[in-house]
Amino acid sequence: MADIYVPMISSGVAGPLGVLHLPRLWLKVSLEELGKLAPGYPGIGRGFDAMTCAALGLEEQAVKDYIKQNKPTYPEFEAWVKKNAKSLNRAAIEKHNSAVRGYIHDDETRTGVLGACGIADDASAPKDAVNLNNLDDWYEFHQVVLK
Predict the structure, then answer these.
(1) Is this model's pTM higher than 0.85 or not?
(2) Distance CA 124, CA 109 (A)
(3) Which of 110, 122, 129, 136 could disulfide-link to 103, CB 3.0 to 4.6 Å?
(4) For residue 81, what are the domain limits?
């Protein structure tokens, strides 16, 4: 097994609660707490991580503390989220999921990811953050594990 891990769960994945990015957030924080998260990946960053915590009304430090102290499975984490989220309802989840699906990276980020992956930045290239982040993860995984 590798000593560090690139988080390979996409932001476009939801668990049983239906919240996009929540499984990735759990994975990243879990890996960070064990010192196994690949460099360049924050446990809770300012993008989708912060958006997800804010949308659900979860305090970022409380999420980190729970995961650090309990090392939960993903279903255990979702059960904790159900108990602690201040805004866990269908409308909040749909609003959040729509924001995740519709988030567009800035031009610099897009060109950097596409360039690293050898993909032309043309009309057929992905523009949304979920697909660009997937490409970035796959590239980083290749560099860290497969190369």
Answers:
(1) yes
(2) 17
(3) 129
(4) 1-103
